[in-house]
């Protein structure tokens, strides 16, 4: 393993391109990640990371190999071989029966048209399914029903033993690109521009008692749906390649709100506008969505947008958060966000409230004497009251993590254990809190010295 110290800001690679992107100097007081471990093993792009438990995670990508890692030490636990083509989807599946102990499983799908269930404790294959007519692009586990779903040219439902319980008829050649669980045993599947709502039902615990029925098609998006996220039992959100964000009711599947002007500077006047003749789909695509109870956080093109669900509007944004497209974003338990990009960087942001200036008073003078200023005064008071009631936020860059040499595909946040990132450079990096790691090393040293001292006293 290698341990490096993180450097300061990036060297510009073309000032004209990066003039609108925020930079941060060497003094990154709020960035705890001053050490990193580089994990090697993959031979191609690493696209997926999935958390197994508080200390273990799996990685997978275009080499078709799955690795299991220890997030604390960076130790490689297992190297799983079974696929012959790139991995297209991965999902954790922790389950337990009354007669069996809890098992930590992961499910992987590949372009070789197979799906494999792995045991994370032993590193062995539990089941391999090879009956697919097309590549499985997404996997979702429904823990309450103890089943998992595979999405491709059709939607299939499987039990823990990988028995096929039921499936839909052939949908499209393009197939299902994403799945999200909804209340009342329903799921939403994105198929091109459409959202299809399916309901699962089980009359008994036998395989022949299961059924899956299409109950509704939602056709509100103008382009292919690129991201889905469940907010809570009442709400889920979708995003498309042309920058549309739609908020849906998770119970009756009606459209609650939408945002289609992420790139329009007139909608977000606090942001410096860019002079462009047109916006390409790549610059406006919603690459990833995540949420907490109050907001949806959207990675749109090179930018990050915070959409408040109650206000039904964007409350903060960084239109040029990175030099290239933002591929993944996560909200931490505090007011911080982490984002990663095609430019190879990982950045930490903090959502802060702006200190607003008080509204200017209406000037006294000739018009005020005759009452002409009364309407203006009332309007001014109304505007002032509105300003006081609506807080204004902004995203401030507080950390810049430079270690990968190519696009960072995604990351996992492990709290005090740090951050795991994967990249097109074939590497995984564990970013560590330097002060915590130094304290742990000192504590280990003191324990060894104390043990040696006791040994000498006994001798």
UniProtKB/TrEMBL annotation:
<dbReference type="GO" id="GO:0006914">
    <property type="term" value="P:autophagy"/>
</dbReference>
<feature type="repeat" description="WD">
    <location>
        <begin position="39"/>
        <end position="79"/>
    </location>
</feature>
<dbReference type="InterPro" id="IPR001680">
    <property type="entry name" value="WD40_rpt"/>
</dbReference>
<dbReference type="InterPro" id="IPR015943">
    <property type="entry name" value="WD40/YVTN_repeat-like_dom_sf"/>
</dbReference>
<comment type="subunit">
    <text>Component of the C9orf72-SMCR8 complex, at least composed of C9orf72, SMCR8 and WDR41. The complex is formed of two protomers, each individually consisting of one molecule each of C9orf72, SMCR8 and WDR41. The protomers homodimerize via an interaction between C9orf72 (via C-terminus) and SMCR8 (via N-terminus). Within each protomer SMCR8 (via DENN domain) acts as a bridging protein between WDR41 (via C-terminus and N-terminus) and C9orf72 (via C-terminus). The C9orf72-SMCR8 complex associates with the ULK1/ATG1 kinase complex.</text>
</comment>
<protein>
    <recommendedName>
        <fullName>WD repeat-containing protein 41</fullName>
    </recommendedName>
</protein>
<keyword id="KW-0853">WD repeat</keyword>
<dbReference type="InterPro" id="IPR019775">
    <property type="entry name" value="WD40_repeat_CS"/>
</dbReference>
<keyword id="KW-0677">Repeat</keyword>
<dbReference type="GO" id="GO:0005765">
    <property type="term" value="C:lysosomal membrane"/>
</dbReference>
<dbReference type="InterPro" id="IPR036322">
    <property type="entry name" value="WD40_repeat_dom_sf"/>
</dbReference>
<dbReference type="GO" id="GO:0010506">
    <property type="term" value="P:regulation of autophagy"/>
</dbReference>
<dbReference type="InterPro" id="IPR040102">
    <property type="entry name" value="WDR41"/>
</dbReference>
<feature type="repeat" description="WD">
    <location>
        <begin position="319"/>
        <end position="359"/>
    </location>
</feature>
<dbReference type="Pfam" id="PF25178">
    <property type="entry name" value="Beta-prop_WDR41"/>
</dbReference>
<keyword id="KW-0963">Cytoplasm</keyword>
<comment type="function">
    <text>Non-catalytic component of the C9orf72-SMCR8 complex, a complex that has guanine nucleotide exchange factor (GEF) activity and regulates autophagy. The C9orf72-SMCR8 complex promotes the exchange of GDP to GTP, converting inactive GDP-bound RAB8A and RAB39B into their active GTP-bound form, thereby promoting autophagosome maturation. As part of the C9orf72-SMCR8 complex, stimulates RAB8A and RAB11A GTPase activity in vitro, however WDR42 is shown not be an essential complex component for this function.</text>
</comment>
<dbReference type="InterPro" id="IPR020472">
    <property type="entry name" value="WD40_PAC1"/>
</dbReference>
<feature type="repeat" description="WD">
    <location>
        <begin position="80"/>
        <end position="128"/>
    </location>
</feature>
<keyword id="KW-0072">Autophagy</keyword>
């Amino acid at each position: 393993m290698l341990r490096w110290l993180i450097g300061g800001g990036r060297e510009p690679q073309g000032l004209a391109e990066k003039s609108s992107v925020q930079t941060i100097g060497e003094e990154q007081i709020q960035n705890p990640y001053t050490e990193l471990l580089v994990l090697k093993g993959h031979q191609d792009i690493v696209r997926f990371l999935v958390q197994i438990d508080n200390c273990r995670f799996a990685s997978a990508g275009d080499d078709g190999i799955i690795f299991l890692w220890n997030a604390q030490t960076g130790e490689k636990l297992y190297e799983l071989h079974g696929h012959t083509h790139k991995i297209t989807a991965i999902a954790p599946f922790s389950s337990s029966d009354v007669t069996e102990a809890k098992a930590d499983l992961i499910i992987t799908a590949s372009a070789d048209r197979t799906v494999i269930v792995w045991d994370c404790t032993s590193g062995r294959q539990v089941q391999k399914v090879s009956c697919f007519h097309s590549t499985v692009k997404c996997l979702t586990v429904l823990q309450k029903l103890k089943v998992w779903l595979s999405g491709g040219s059709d939607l299939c439902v499987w039990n823990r033993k990988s028995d096929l319980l039921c499936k839909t008829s052939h949908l499209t050649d393009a197939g299902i690109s994403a799945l999200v669980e909804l209340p009342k045993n329903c799921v939403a599947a994105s198929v091109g521009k459409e959202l299809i709502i399916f309901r699962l039902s089980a009359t008994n615990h036998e395989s022949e008692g299961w059924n899956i029925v299409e109950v509704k098609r939602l056709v509100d998006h103008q382009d292919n749906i690129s991201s889905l996220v469940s907010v809570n039992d009442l709400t889920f959100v979708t995003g498309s390649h042309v920058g549309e964000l739609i908020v849906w009711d998770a119970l009756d599947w009606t459209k609650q709100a939408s945002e289609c002007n992420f790139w329009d500077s007139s909608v977000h006047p606090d942001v410096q506008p860019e002079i462009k003749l047109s916006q390409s789909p790549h610059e406006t695509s919603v690459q990833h969505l995540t949420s907490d109870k109050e907001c949806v956080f959207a990675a749109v093109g090179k930018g990050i947008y915070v959409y408040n669900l109650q206000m039904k509007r964007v409350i903060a944004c960084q239109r040029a958060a990175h030099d290239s497209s933002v591929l993944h974003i996560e909200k931490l338990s505090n007011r911080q966000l982490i984002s990663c990009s095609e430019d190879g960087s990982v950045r930490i942001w903090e959502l802060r409230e702006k200190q607003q200036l008080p509204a200017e008073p209406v000037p006294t003078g000739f018009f005020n004497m005759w009452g002409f200023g009364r309407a203006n005064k009332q309007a001014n008071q109304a505007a002032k009251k509105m300003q006081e009631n609506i807080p204004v936020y902004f995203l401030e860059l507080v950390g810049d993590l430079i270690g990968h040499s190519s696009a960072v595909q995604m990351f996992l946040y492990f709290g005090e254990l740090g951050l795991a990132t994967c990249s097109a450079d074939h590497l995984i990096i564990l970013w560590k809190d330097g002060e915590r790691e130094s304290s742990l090393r000192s504590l280990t040293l003191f324990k060894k010295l104390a043990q040696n001292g006791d040994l000498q006293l006994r001798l």
